[in-house]
């Protein structure tokens, strides 16, 4: 690594500077590479604007490229870097190459790896949402989080009744407020009753907040120009339409199906040997929320769209249910994207327009 004395004599004017960032709540680990070697590494406070100012100061005159993993930090760091003229990539963690014998993780090693991959052009950035898109999807994402919390509370109530011997371990009756009230009638313990009532209060509060979000989503749907296209898709209901629209928007923005499959994590892994190429499981990179809802929709859609049913029936005997339905989900989103490109709603027998003759 260069000494402080040598670094002062170096001019970065016109040079490419590749910077890997390992982002944490309180700190950023930073490693910068220039001309195939590490030029500087440091740790700084997690302040996007301060980091941008440091990069511009340390590498004055250079063309600065940065990269960091998508995560809890969101896009505020990305926007601050871009605002200061620094080209940044936000990359999916699952898309970062990991050598078989390189499993040790430290902040600086992770930052150095990102810098090296960025320099060798082996990183692909995720799609960056506008602030408006980011705000819109807060409704569906927050609803999902609250529903998960509500499920956890209901499971805790069920477990308490089981521990006291009120219900059997294999009891699968739907947990409802009415049933909880009925079960409490069998209990003589005021302490146990108080504990269950505390959880029930949290449950009812979550019900109220989820209802507020769903009302806001209904209003959002009325104002969304993409709603009619998504609702025309077989298997897509009001909630799944909101999730797809808030996460994917107008699908015609994706340049091709490959880009769309990559964003949704429905790209099959590929193994090649010589002239033989074998498709494997999906990579699971990309948006897990979208991938989950698309698979759910695909299961419903094969009962409504004959073309999708035929696709599933053809693949199922050879690949099994999981791979067959993933293939259906890929075919489905390709057809939805085609509908957006044509400015039409989804057609059950929709066929893409033939390419013009050369």
Description of the molecule:
It contains 13 helices and seven strands. A five-stranded mixed beta sheet has the order 3-2-1-4-5. A two-stranded antiparallel sheet has the order 6-7. The chain is globular, with a radius of gyration of 26 Å. It has three domains: 4-119, 2-Layer Sandwich (Nucleotidyltransferase, domain 5); 132-223; 230-342, no CATH class. A hairpin with a 3-residue loop joins strand 1 and strand 2. Helix 2 packs parallel to helix 3 (76-83). It is an alpha/beta fold. It has helices spanning 4-9, 48-58, 76-83, 107-119, 131-163, 177-184, 190-223, 227-231, 238-248, 257-264, 288-301, 306-319, 321-342, and strands at 16-23, 27-34, 37-45, 63-69, 87-91, 268-273, 276-282.
Layout: helices, strands, pairs:
Layout: H1 4-9, E1 16-23, E2 27-34, E3 37-45, H2 48-58, E4 63-69, H3 76-83, E5 87-91, H4 107-119, H5 131-163, H6 177-184, H7 190-223, H8 227-231, H9 238-248, H10 257-264, E6 268-273, E7 276-282, H11 288-301, H12 306-319, H13 321-342
Parallel strand pairs: 1-4, 4-5
Antiparallel strand pairs: 1-2, 2-3, 6-7
Helix pairs in contact: 2-3, 5-7, 5-9, 9-11, 11-13, 12-13
| Main beta-sheet annotation | 5 strands, mixed
Terminal Cα span: 56 Å
How is the quaternary structure best described? single chain
Order of helices and strands: HEEEHEHEHHHHHHHEEHHH
What top-tier CATH class of the largest domain fits best?
A: Alpha Beta
Number of separate structural domains: 3
Return the CATH topology of the largest domain. Nucleotidyltransferase, domain 5
What strand line-up does the widest sheet have?
Answer: 3-2-1-4-5
Point out poorly predicted stretches.
99-104, 269-281, 350-358
Strand content: 5-15%
């Amino acid at each position: 690594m260069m000494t402080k004395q040598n670094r002062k004599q170096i001019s970065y004017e016109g040079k490419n500077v590749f910077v890997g960032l390992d982002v944490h709540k309180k700190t950023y680990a930073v490693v910068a590479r220039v001309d195939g070697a590490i030029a500087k590494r440091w740790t700084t406070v997690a302040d996007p604007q301060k980091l941008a100012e440091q990069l511009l100061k340390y590498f004055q005159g250079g063309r600065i490229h940065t990269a960091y993993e998508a995560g809890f930090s969101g896009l505020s760091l990305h926007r601050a870097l871009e605002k200061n003229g620094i080209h940044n990539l936000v990359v999916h963690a699952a898309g970062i190459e990991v050598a078989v014998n390189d499993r040790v993780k430290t902040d600086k090693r992770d930052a150095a790896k990102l810098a090296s991959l960025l320099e060798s052009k082996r990183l692909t950035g995720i799609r960056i949402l506008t602030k408006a898109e980011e705000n819109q999807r807060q409704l569906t994402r927050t609803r999902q989080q609250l529903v998960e919390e509500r499920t956890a509370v209901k499971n805790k109530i069920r477990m308490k009744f089981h521990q006291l011997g009120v219900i059997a371990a294999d009891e699968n009756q739907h947990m409802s407020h009415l049933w909880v009230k009925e079960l409490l009638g069998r209990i003589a313990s005021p302490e146990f009753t108080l504990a269950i009532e505390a959880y029930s209060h949290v449950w009812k509060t979550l019900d109220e907040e989820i209802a507020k979000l769903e009302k806001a989503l209904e209003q959002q749907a009325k104002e969304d120009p993409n709603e009619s296209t998504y609702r025309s898709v077989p298997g897509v209901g009001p909630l799944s339409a909101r999730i797809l629209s808030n996460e994917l928007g107008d699908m015609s923005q994706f340049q091709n199906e490959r880009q769309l499959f990559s964003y949704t994590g429905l790209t099959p892994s590929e193994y090649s040997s010589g002239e033989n190429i074998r498709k494997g499981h999906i990579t699971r990179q990309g948006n897990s929320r979208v991938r989950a809802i698309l698979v759910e929709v695909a299961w419903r859609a094969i009962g409504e769209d004959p073309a999708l049913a035929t696709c599933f029936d053809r693949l199922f005997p050879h690949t099994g249910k999981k791979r067959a339905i993933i293939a259906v989900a890929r075919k489905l989103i390709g057809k939805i994207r085609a509908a957006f490109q044509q400015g039409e709603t989804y057609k059950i027998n929709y066929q893409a327009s033939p390419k013009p003759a050369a």
